[in-house]
Amino acid sequence: MIKKFIICLALFSSVIAFSQRNTSSPYSYYGLGEVQFGGTQSARAMGGLAIEGDSISLNLLNPASYSHLKLTSLAIGATTNFTNLIGESDEEKARSTGLDYLVVGVPIGKFGASFGLKPFSSVGYNISNVGVDEFDNQTIKTETGSGNINRFFVGGSYAVNKKFSIGMDFQYNFGTIETQTIEGNSGIQLLSREKNTSSISGVSLNFGALYNTKITEKYNLYASFRYAPEATLTSNNERVLATVTYTANGAEVINNQQNVPVNNTDLVIPSKISFGAGIGEKNKWMVGTEVSFQNNSKLINRFDDTFSAATYENSQKYIVGGYYIPKFDSFTSYLSRVVYRAGFRYENIGLVVKDKSINDYGMNFGLGLPLGFSKIDLGFEFGVRGTKYNNLIRENYFNLSVGLSLSDKWFNKRKID
């Protein structure tokens, strides 16, 4: 058992520096950035459906699931994203890879607990605009941004009875986001640069409940509820103005650097509520749906003087998904024990740019490959975000996800020493 704890500590220590979840979406400019999925790869492969607890693996979206665990579980997951950014007249390709979660879940009788690290949101974009001023001089404006808000959480769950469980996560959010704007004119030798840095921190909560019961001798009914109340993050902001030039080899030379006082801001994580339901046959199949509503009316940008063309509206997400296991206890066919997953997701993300609501929808497929009580989850996602019209960007993306879940009994007393 001590060796297992050492492995966990080593994984946590090594992953702290790699806790950055990258993105390449221009829409991550706004608000808190691009909010990450937050669940395991098995849930992602069903479109994000998370209405069921499991005895050997974690459900990170609903904390009520922790009391369903029968074995201690260590889970880690990562995703590589391939994106085509398509405008009205041009197209670019981007790729990013990042950690999705590193968590531990522990059963404690009727109770269950979990703790871990995962990204909450990411910022990553590089946008250049070239034009001509009234004197026919060429102008260029380049905007870049990078950074993350990460989330460390500790959660607990209690099984009220065999059918109903409740749970809660306490979450500490932290991270740094840096944005930079460089503007130049062919008639002027020096370029102007504005660099903004936001150090963000704050706490949030997530509540959940799960219910399952038999509706016939063969079939089960599943229901879920999640509620995350509104939370406030503090953004400590800094701004530095400078004029810059670049040498022939691309080195930046800074001139006339000046720190400019700016106000700190309170950023809101909007309240969110989710309802889900499904039916299925234990260890055989399950199909379900989930709907989420988020109040984005209080979202703001980190600095008050960002694009006025962007506003926010309440968002909705709709999910349909499920899984199928041909024969979970087959001794002769490994493929019969594999979990086959699929799902569909549609979301209005709550961002309005140039009077156009930004929508995101995708199809998901996945495989759960059993390794005794442990497993490897593979997921594939095809999606589209935004539109290429109104001088906006459409993102056609493909995500390849891999998750590893290691489950075992950690706290048994040895009968023979």
List keywords for this structure.
single chain, 417 residues, mainly beta, 14-stranded antiparallel barrel, 3 helices
Structure commentary:
There is one protein chain. This protein is mainly beta. Helix content is 6%, strand content 61%. It is built from 3 helices and 19 strands. A 14-stranded antiparallel barrel has the order 2-3-4-5-6-7-8-12-13-15-16-17-18-19. β5 and β6 form a beta hairpin. The radius of gyration is 24 Å and the shape is elongated. The two termini are 14 Å apart.
Please report the distance between the alpha carbons of the first and last residues: 14 Å
Strand pairing plus helix content: what structural class? Answer: mainly beta
- Describe the main β-sheet briefly: 14 strands, antiparallel, barrel
Quaternary state of this entry equals single chain
Q: Can you write the helix and strand succession as a string? A: HEHEEEEEEEEEEEEEEHEEEE
The residue-averaged pLDDT reads: 88
What coarse outline follows from CA principal-axis ratios?
elongated
The unreliable regions are none
Strand content: over 45%
Number of H/I helices: 3
Radius of gyration: 24 Å
Going across the biggest sheet, name each strand in turn.
2-3-4-5-6-7-8-12-13-15-16-17-18-19
Helicity, in percent? under 10%
**Count of extended strands:** 19
